[in-house]
Design brief:
Rossmann fold, disordered C terminus, about 30% helix, about 325 residues, 10 helices, alpha/beta, seven-stranded mixed β-sheet, single chain, Spermidine Synthase, Chain: A, domain 2, globular
Length: about 325
């Protein structure tokens, strides 16, 4: 009896390393005006979102990424009411923000309306109805243009755009000049959080460059890392603020705030996880200290990926 053919999709880390996922079928494949959107149903990680040939998130473990991205800042803030999310087209970042009873307004800005349409239809567990919450305003616009024109100020800004791929939609959202604009849109005790790329031994130049660049704008920057199984890599985040006085709280207080502020149950984040996130390994602390690159508008960070085949056996 012949074995059934298994289709594989390649997730490139760089030109010399990749991670392969076996998948059942292609759920959605759209070439929008902005990017190529692919959703595949994998055997190990459920539905996976891929943008411009780069894996973004997986149904099985997206809660790790999104809880790590959102909760440290919103728990440490004394009581965030207005939150800005740049990117996050799956709706999962918005989902986590909306857990907070203090949040009165959440603005989500995404450049690609097709991405949001695909998420609503094919990724229901990711957004969990977040787009329909009456506290939400969804804006279809380039994130930088929105921040440049908006007059509002926010308690927390979450930047959840895809990595700065050459030719992609987000590389101008990683520059020092952009972070300077963001700083002006934060309230006095506001917090910025940025998804900052891979943070492994061999692949952390983007992460350390982003940390170094943010450090030129904000007086207090706190990099942190967690392992994402579907990425097969440690992943980096950067938290920044001009007012660190609110950040020094005990583990008991973190857990008390989770209990009092959040609706629903978290699967990843609590006080023990919080402190683990910020305890970086020695090699990574050293690499951050050694990094000298400042990402600027005139010299933006651009990453290159070999791409994923799109023949009939692969999306």
């Amino acid at each position: 009896m012949e074995k059934a053919q298994i289709n594989w999709i390649d997730d490139y880390f760089n030109n010399y390393e990749l991670h392969k996922h076996a998948f059942k079928d292609v759920v959605c494949q759209v070439q929008s005006e902005i990017q190529k959107i692919i959703i595949v149903d994998t055997y190990n990680y459920g539905r996976c979102l891929i943008l411009d040939n780069e894996f973004q998130s997986a149904e099985m473990d997206e809660f790790i990424y999104h809880e790590a991205l959102v909760h440290p800042s919103l728990i440490l803030h004394p009581g965030a009411e207005r939150v800005l999310v740049l990117g996050g087209g799956e709706g999962a970042t918005l989902r986590e923000v909306l857990r907070y009873k203090t949040v009165k307004k959440a603005v989500m800005v995404d450049v690609d309306k097709e991405m949001i349409a695909c998420s609503k239809k094919f990724l229901p567990s990711f957004h969990d109805g977040a787009f329909d919450d009456n506290r939400v305003e969804v804006v279809i616009e380039d994130g930088r243009k929105y921040v440049e024109r908006v007059q509002d100020r926010f308690d927390v800004v979450v930047i959840d755009v895809n990595d700065p791929l050459d030719g992609g939609p987000s590389y101008m959202l990683f520059t020092m000049e952009f972070y300077q604009i963001i700083a002006e849109k934060l309230k006095a005790d506001g917090i910025l959080i940025v998804q900052s790329g891979a943070a492994s031994v061999s692949e952390n130049d983007a992460f350390t460059s982003i940390c170094n660049t943010i450090n030129k704008v904000f007086s207090h920057v706190f990099p942190y890392v967690t392992y994402i199984p579907s990425y097969a890599l440690p992943w980096g985040f950067s938290m920044a603020t001009h007012n660190p006085s609110n950040l020094d709280i005990s583990g008991d207080e973190i857990d008390a705030r989770i209990h009092s502020r959040i609706t629903g149950k978290l699967r990843f984040y609590d006080s023990i996880t919080h402190h683990a996130l910020f305890n970086l390994p020695k090699y990574l602390r050293s690499d951050i200290q050694r990094q000298r690159r400042i990402i600027r508008d005139k010299d933006p960070l651009k990453e290159h990926y070999p791409g994923i085949p799109t023949e009939s056996t692969n999306p």
